[in-house]
Structure formats: structure tokens, C-alpha cells
Amino acid sequence: MSRVLITMPVAAAGLRRLEDAGHELDLVERPAPAEFRARLARADAVILRFQALSRQDIEAAGKLRFVARHGVGYDAVDVAALTERGIPLAITPGANAIGVAEHALALLLAVARRVIGHDAGVRAGQWQAALRGPMFELAGKTALIVGAGRIGRATAQRLRAFDMRVLAYDPFLPADAALPQGIEIRTDLAAALAEADVVSLHLPLTDATRGLIDPLALKRGAIVVNTARGGLLDPTRLLAALESGHLTGAGLDVFDPEPPGAADALLRRPEVVLSPHAASLTDASIERMATECATNIIDFFEGRPPRDSIVNLAGIAL
Ligand SMILES: NC(=O)C1=CN([C@@H]2O[C@H](COP(=O)(O)OP(=O)(O)OC[C@H]3O[C@@H](n4cnc5c(N)ncnc54)[C@H](OP(=O)(O)O)[C@@H]3O)[C@@H](O)[C@H]2O)C=CC1
Ligand SMILES: O=C(O)C(=O)CO
Which residues are in the D-isomer specific 2-hydroxyacid dehydrogenase catalytic domain (predicted)? Predict the structure, then answer.
């Protein structure tokens, strides 16, 4: 039916689904840029995990008819170039929402309860380390979700379960949006950042949101959690906020660039907990991303464009 280029591991259930529907898989693990271009030139569709897709890639992809993102963020894809060629870009909305929301909570708790330092202390025989100042209790404090989409809402629901007051800032929220019970909407970002003890980011990285969150504008003593995209937070100001003690700490799954350079001073801050852009990589989320991504490809080539998953639908004739 179609030749599908796949350059990073995708769960077997997704691959099987594609093969059962008659698609040919071109599997190659992390090819060099020249080989990626050469294979892309022969592909009808491509599955993108963390890879970028540039205008030059797209211009070299003569046969390409469909791009399937294994995940939801598409800041690394040149959507304008795809749209000009009439190529749909589909994502897997919601497939990793629970995985990321659980990870945001994991990072938050690890920072709040100094889990990494305690673990190291116990292993090193430093039992008294736990007595170095009180830890940060969540109950009764205020959390702010920036971006109240699929992941933001799943995170808000989980923060409520910790008896936190939860605010949400999302300027594009439709009036009839179904938010988890008890979430308070805020329309003034600066005021909301100054009010919250915990700030968790769940918005896309775009030209408008790059550097949107100034860590020094958060409330003194707050914790910031970023499982969205590294470019949302100014790294210099984040470091300044941590070094000065303005923030209690930060939980970071995403960086700009990825991976961060070995000299990045954030890597040496004890009040920061890090993970390697892994928030969505749970057993269930990996499976859902793979199968939904495969279904998007199958539906497109069988003449049922997955309209709810296509992000550039307005610009292309389907
Ligand atoms: N670490 C990881 O592994 C993962 C990271 N992500 C990141 O998380 C992001 C969110 O994913 P998901 O919840 O599924 O996406 P959604 O599209 O469901 O939610 C994003 C929300 O952010 C809103 N938004 C856009 N601009 C702003 C802004 N300036 N201020 C506040 N809110 C804004 C959007 O509004 P509107 O829809 O109207 O534009 C939308 O409601 C992704 O874009 C991706 O970058 C996602 C999955 C895994
Ligand atoms: O879905 C996303 O946007 C991710 O970052 C993980 O694939």
C-alpha cells in the first residue's frame, strides 16, 4: 500500500497493525542525516518520534504524502512546508496524556521531598541528611497549570487528589471546556505565576510561547515542573532563580537543546530533578502512541483521513 519510514523504535503492536494493513515498513535505527534524506525520498509516509523534519527534508521527499507524529508536540516539524505541499501532519492526541501527567507528579514529588538527595544520603551512610530543613508539603498549597489541554487537565486532576488548590492559565480555552472539578481559571499569567507555589507547564512551544515563563517571576519558594518543552523557560533566568534560592527547585524532563550540554550548570544544581525527555515513555503510553499513529496512516491511505488528529487540516484539501 505505502512505504512507511520508521527511524526510531516503535512498539510492536503499531508495526503489526501497519503490516496487517499491507504497508511496507522501512525500518532503520537513527540514520545519519544523508541516509535519512535518501530513505525519506522513497517513503510515502514517515513516523516521527523525536526527530525534526525540516523544510529541506520535506523538499527532498518527493513521494511523501503523510507524516505521522508518534506523540503530540510538533515544534520540530516545519508545518508550513508540509502544508505548502498538501501533506497532512497527524499527531496522537491524548495517547500520552496520562504518562506525562504521572511524570509531572513524579518530578514534583521528587523535588518537593528531596528524594534524590535522600536516596544518595542513605546510600552514603549520611542518615542525618533528612534533617536539613523541612520539606515542601503539597496539601493546601496552590498549583498553576499553564496550558489546560489534554496533559494539563490530567495533571490538574492528579494535583487535586493531593488536596492542592489548582489554577489553570490557558488564554485559548473555550468557554464550554470541560475542566476537572474545582479548577480555577486565570486570565492574567503574571498574577497567576506570582500566586502559585507549584507551576507545571503543559503548553506547546511556538514563536509566541518561547521564553514565556520567567522563573524569576514565580512566587518565592515555588517549584517549577517542565514536561512540555525546554524553550518555554529561559535557562539563564532559571539558573539565577535556583542559585539565588528564589525557587525551591525544578523538575525538568525537557531541555533546549536536547540533550543538554555537559557544561550546563543546571545539571549540577542539587534542587533540580532531571529526566531525559522520558515523560511519555510508559508501557501504556508507548503502546497507544504506536497504535494510534499506525491507525492514522492506515486511515489516510484507505481514504479515511483522521481529521481529528491532523494539525494542518485547514491548509490542505482532503
Ligand atoms: N515530555 C514529553 O515527553 C511530552 C511533552 N509534551 C508537550 O506537552 C505539550 C502539551 O501537550 P497536550 O496537552 O497533549 O496538548 P494540547 O494541545 O491538548 O494542550 C495544550 C494547551 O496549551 C494551550 N496553549 C497554547 N498556547 C498557550 C499559551 N500561550 N498559554 C497557555 N496555554 C496555551 C493550547 O490551547 P490551543 O489548543 O487553543 O492552542 C492547549 O489548550 C505538547 O505541545 C508537547 O510540547 C507532550 C507529550 C509528551
Ligand atoms: O508527544 C510529545 O510531544 C513528546 O514530546 C514525546 O513524544
Answer: 4-309
Which CATH number fits the domain that encloses residue 231? 3.40.50.720
Question: Taking the model in full, what pTM does it have?
Answer: 0.97
3-class secondary structure per residue, 272-304: EEECCCCCCCCHHHHHHHHHHHHHHHHHHHCCC
DSSP β-ladder status, 3-6 and 24-27 = parallel
Same domain, 174 and 82: no
Bridge-partner residues for 90, per DSSP? Answer: 68, 310
Tens of pLDDT, residues 161-170? 999 999 999 9
End-to-end CA, the chain: 19
Tell me how far the alpha carbon of residue 128 lies from the centroid of ligand 2, in angstroms.
39
What is the C-alpha to C-alpha distance for residues 126 and 218, in angstroms, rounded to an integer? 33
ipTM of model over 0.90: yes
Kindly state whether residues 109 and 254 are assigned to the same domain: yes
Judge if 101 and 74 occupy the same domain. no
pLDDT tier at 175, thresholds 50, 70, 90: confident
Closest CA to 106 of 292, 275, 293: 275
Amino acid 51 reads Q
Number of domains in the chain: 2
Residue 62 grid coordinates = 518527493
Identity at 215, one-letter amino acid code = P
In the set 17, 186, 229, 269, the catalytic residue is: 229
Q: Indicate the length of the chain as a whole number.
A: 318
Task: Give the three-class secondary structure for 104.
Answer: helix
Q: Of the bound ligands, which one is closest to the alpha carbon of residue 91?
A: 2
Domain with 22, as residue range(s), is 3-94+282-315
Q: Residues 61, 139: one domain?
A: no
Q: Is the CB of 23 under 6 A from ligand 1?
A: no
- Alpha-carbon span 67 to 244, nearest angstrom: 45
The CA 303 to ligand 2 mean position distance, Å, reads 27
